[in-house]
Specification:
Blueprint lengths: L6 E11 L2 E13 L2 H8 L9 E6 L6 E7 L4 E2 L3 H14 L6 E6 L2 E9 L5 E10 L20 E6 L10 E10 L3 E6 L5 H12 L9 E7 L5 E7 L3 E3 L3 H13 L6 E7 L2 E7 L4 E15 L4 H6 L1
Parallel strand pairs: 2-3, 4-6, 11-12, 13-15
Antiparallel strand pairs: 1-2, 1-17, 3-4, 4-5, 6-7, 7-8, 8-17, 9-10, 10-11, 12-13, 13-14, 15-16, 16-17
Length: about 300
């Protein structure tokens, strides 16, 4: 059964992880965070502006429970940057019980360690993201979509192997789950045009019933990854924590990178992902505070109306 949408208050905390920004809101007695309200709040002209919203809810078995909403108003299962920003919020506001913050999210508990750096407002956040898996069926992948090599072939205009943009080729992607659905394509020299054209086609492909976060990865010298991201419900994104984790796991599975710490270079900056032998993942990178404040008195009622 679907959860009811949370109700929120006026106060917010905003931070970003390598350019991927989230608003953290507390559960309160204000208006319900409907899809329309979430879209308006995340609008960079008519709202505060953000790639997503994290709502912090009390939980008896963790420091807090969090729910994550994309900029299009849809709810996400998990977000690597979202959990790390929420952990920073709790660390800063006194809601954490120790250096490690336990957050219940998407049917699991993620632990995040937050440490100050020598730069004011910049924090190092290490998240234990659980284990990667490579689904071949529901709920994230349609039955029969995955081939014998563990990949899904998605038809796209002007895809690899075609001589002009009007022809139809295919991109082979590896389905990965890190608590939410991902599709990772490996290649060389991915352009913004390819990401913007092929990303939404793969995101909404019938092969992915719940949609997918799409990643265009290139292996660089030393086994690191250069990653371009098309985030489900958002579009092209400067960075994404779960995306970095999914791409690193897919690279290890394909034999393109060794297990251990993998450097992931995204448009917004660099994060590191540790892939353990049991496929458990640890994501580390900076979180930067942006602002905190309150919505104007008439903003939430105006959106609600």
């Amino acid at each position: 059964m679907l959860q009811s949408r949370p109700r929120i208050g006026r106060s917010f905390f905003r931070a970003h992880g390598l350019g991927n920004d989230y608003l953290v809101l507390g559960a309160a007695s204000g208006p319900t965070l409907t899809p329309e309200l979430a879209r308006r709040i995340c609008d960079r002209h008519c709202g505060v502006g953000a790639d997503g919203i994290v709502v912090v809810v009390p939980d008896p078995d963790a420091d807090a429970r969090i729910r994550i909403f994309n900029a299009d108003g849809s709810e996400a299962e998990r977000s690597g940057n979202g959990v790390r920003i929420a952990a920073l919020f709790l660390h800063r506001s006194g809601g954490a019980r120790g250096e490690w913050v336990a957050l219940a999210t998407g049917g699991d508990t993620v632990r995040v360690r937050v440490r100050a750096t020598d730069r004011e407002g910049v924090w190092d956040a290490l998240a234990e993201m659980g284990r990667a898996s490579f689904p071949k069926g529901p709920p994230f992948v349609a039955p029969g979509a995955v081939g014998s090599g563990g990949e899904v072939a998605i038809a796209v205009p002007g895809g690899p192997g075609t001589s002009d943009s009007g022809a139809t080729g295919s991109i082979r992607v590896t389905p990965v789950s890190v608590g939410n659905p991902h599709a990772v394509a490996f290649g060389n020299g991915w352009s913004d045009e390819e990401v913007e054209r092929c990303g939404p086609l793969i995101e909404r492909s019938e092969a992915f019933p719940q949609g997918a976060n799409v990643h265009f990865a290139e292996v660089v010298r030393g086994g690191g990854l250069l990653l371009r991201i098309w985030e489900r419900g958002v579009g092209m994104t400067a960075s994404s924590g779960t995306s970095a984790c999914a791409a690193a796991a897919a690279a290890v599975r394909a034999g393109l990178a060794p297990r251990g710490v993998i450097v992931v270079i995204m448009m917004g900056g660099v994060a590191s992902v540790e892939v353990a032998p049991d496929w458990s993942l640890r994501l580390e990178g900076p979180i930067v505070e942006i602002s905190e404040g309150k919505f104007a008195p008439g903003l939430l009622p105006a959106i609600r109306g």
